[in-house]
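Record 1 of the preview.
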Amino acid sequence: MPCRIDLHTHTYASGDSTTTVEEFVEATGRLSVVAVTDHNEIGVALEIGQALSIPVIVGEEVSTADGDLIGLFLHQRIPKGWDAARTASAIREQGGLVYAPHPFDRRRRSLDLAALTALAGAGLIDIVEVANSKQPAFNAKAAAAARRLALPAAAGSDAHVPAAIGSSFVEVDRETDAATSPAALVSALTGGKVRWSRCDPARPYASRVVPGIRRDQG
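->
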């Protein structure tokens, strides 16, 4: 049975999403592995890891001085505001993988080619997101950069609402242990196929109140 892996999703902890833990869990039926990558926060990712029946990779989309970077397989939150190299080094110190989300996207804080090349030259990047459901205009350029830098390609829905979860993913032809270790994930991505569709529905900020979350400074 094919295994579907979505490596870029968000919950209410990101501050620009209203997706609760319960909604997130209900929306993952099409996936085999999911990474929860809230902005500058990992607490809810840890919570979802306890609630979901499928494997969950704890991640964080970190706001760096050079653009966003995602850390995967994290145990502690990475502070925001550092430069990309320092952030990537901190991710590696936890044994995690460094993932470049939506590179080249000028509408968001994203890494450009110079930043990607510098990280690759320093051996500080592991995966490039070449399929993003929110803004696919830069997917082809990201894929070209991944090939040029000889880095594994990945897909992420970048879901900020439940309906978007799993709209982009990497498909592996067999069941995989991708969530068990960084090496297993890289191996799965190397043999996988990127599948994507555009999915960026308006966020329905209704009158209901989503849970609050305490963030440390920095």
